[in-house]
Amino acid sequence: MDSFIVISLIKVAVVFAVLLTTLAYLQWVERKVIAHIQVRPGPYRVGPHGLLQPLADVVKLITKEDLRPPFVHKALYLAAPFMAMTLALMSICVIPFGPAIHLGGVPTWMQLTDLNIGVLFVLAVSSMGVYGVAFAGWASNNKYALLGGLRSSAQMISYELPMSIAIAAPLLLSNTLSLRTLVDTQAGGIWHWNVLRGPFPQIVSFVIFLIAAFAETNRVPFDLPEAENELVAGFHTEYSSMKFASFFMAEYANMITVSSMAVLLFLGGWMAPWPARYGSSVVPVLVFACAGAIALYHGIRPARRRDRYSLPVTGVVFLTVAAVFLLPMVQNWLLPLFWFGAKVGSILFTFMWVRGTLPRFRYDQLMGFAWKWLFPAAMLNLLVTGFLVAWVS
Amino acid sequence: MASVPISWFLTLSAVLFALGVAGFLFRRNIITVFMSIELMLNAVNLSFVTFAYQFKKVDGHLLALFVMVVAAAEAAVGLAIILTVFKRRPSLDIDDVNSMKN
Amino acid sequence: MDVILFLVFALFAVACAINVVVQRHPITSAISLIGVMASLAVLYLLLGAEFIAAAQVIVYAGAIMVLFVFVIMLLNAGAELRSGRSLMAQALGVPLLAALLGIVAFFVQRLFPRETTTHFGGFTGGGAKEVGRALFTTYLLPFEATSILILIAIVGAIVLAHKELD
């Protein structure tokens, strides 16, 4: 019992630290990606290539004046960002990052806890996340905030329905609600991942889940309720400094959660695309070594004066990471972590790519799309999957 | 004692049900009356699940699920009725809905 | 451990329920009702009803209460201005309610003596597999009937709430 508590506390500390750093640097990545899509450098001056920009943002947000508008409903105004943040972080508790490892001699899983209704837990926490937005909009005593909050929460509950039905289809193939077992049923290489697995590859479910995930996290093209040039910034109009930062962090944490769910349900979790005996453990080494080589090559004759030091240093860092992946003693936990991170990272990159590319929907188009197209498509997909599964077995 | 007697769960269900009845009878605001009805339904769900534990059958859970579904349908229609009736008058007081006109 | 969990969440549920009945502003009543449902979900987990606990949070606390909160926000409901019913009704009602509770509690204690206890893990048949199997075999007719009920509710809500286009 003792070692269980100690191990759990260590895992919570590690996951929490990594998650908060990732949230801060996810914003840096987003700004860089969108900037390069728009052919401009993005944050560049604060630290090498803008790497200290999140730190500068945090300092700015903490030291900004914490406004408290006079006629707001005080309890809900203060509780709403707190609730949004808490619920967004709670669903990380059940996500598995890798297989069983030994932590100081004690065997444990790379997951904070494994519930046998893990999928339902994540759905439940995201249903409760609607309240953070609704109460923020209402408590602000501002008609634009109220409209933005109501629109945003109506959008979130409307898109929960196709998302749940799209989740039900791969569950028919995997036959379990526990997230760890879900990954274990997708072992054996890319043809066993739920997105490509017979009798019915779940490609349609994957697409529907991603579209619903865009709407659940209020991201472009579904971000009308909170965009800056619509409705005066929507439900977080009256929030300043750290409270606004909480909403921001909650949005990124939600993005990480739905990307992780997409990876676990459809893309095989932390499993490598082909088994290790055919050399999949060499892939991260190759990726990082190539990245380091490219950085060093450009560092010899840099285009800008600033890059005289940053590019070679980056190259050396990447080559060191590639060397670390060659050590056999860390491979059993580092490799699954690499694959999980790569898959979640590519879905997050898709989120940012879409943000830089697509225009946003009008609100009635958004709601019509959910109820008239996405929901029937998800139902049809579930019907076909169920029929084929019953026919084959 | 290291475990909870079943009678405690049933007493809790009775307490919640009684509070729901009290809210239903004594409050004026129509939405609070509706919420007291939901409180009563929740109390009944708790006793269904408790009896399912006692007889070690899953049927109590099924009945609780059906109660939830019926509560959802009732909440949807009831709130639509509230929205319609109170579009024409400014107050949410059930004592004011006392004429068949409008 | 079970006793501590039960006592904490049962007292929280009763406190939130009293809050639902006593508060003047409907939004505070709604938040207290969400608190009641969340603590009931924990009590369902203690009784081994894991699927029902998840369904309670997803359906009840995450959808039905959102509907209530929307209506309160749309109607701009304010705090109640007048106090409750007449003093006579309250003076008679509260003791009668307490008496009803006392009688029910007495009979419950008599029917279920202290020895019938629950403990976490005593009933493992409440998972999704068992509920699903029962739902689609024994309870197939009520399942189909509830789907028709939901259809009726959807049509009814839309008919009641839609605007006439003049």
Major beta sheet summary of chain C: none
- What is the first-to-last residue Cα distance of chain C? 64 Å
Task: Give the termini separation of chain A.
Answer: 42 Å
The quaternary organization reads as heterotrimer
| Unreliable segments of 5+ consecutive residues of chain A | none
Task: Give the number of helices of chain A.
Answer: 12
Average pLDDT of chain A works out at: 87
Largest interface: B-C, 69 and 84 residues
- Shape annotation of chain C: globular
- Estimated structural class of chain C: mainly alpha
The geometry of chain A reads as globular
Main-sheet strand order of chain A equals 1-2
Task: Explain this structure.
The complex is a heterotrimer of chains A (393), B (102) and C (166). The model of chain A has no long low-confidence stretch (mean pLDDT 87). Chain A has a domain at 58-260 and 360-392. Chain A is built from 12 helices and 2 strands. Chain A has helices at 2-37, 53-63, 74-90, 118-139, 143-174, 179-184, 203-216, 241-266, 283-300, 307-324, 328-357, 363-392, and strands spanning 98-103, 106-110. The longest helix of chain B has 27 residues, at 59-85. Chain B has 102 residues and is mostly helical. Chain B has a domain at 28-90: Helix Hairpins, CATH 1.10.287. Chain C has 2 domains: 1-79 and 118-123, NADH-ubiquinone/plastoquinone oxidoreductase chain 6, subunit NuoJ (Four Helix Bundle (Hemerythrin (Met), subunit A)); 127-166. Chain C is mostly helical and 166 residues long. Chains in contact: A-C, B-C. The interface between B and C is large, with 69 and 84 residues.
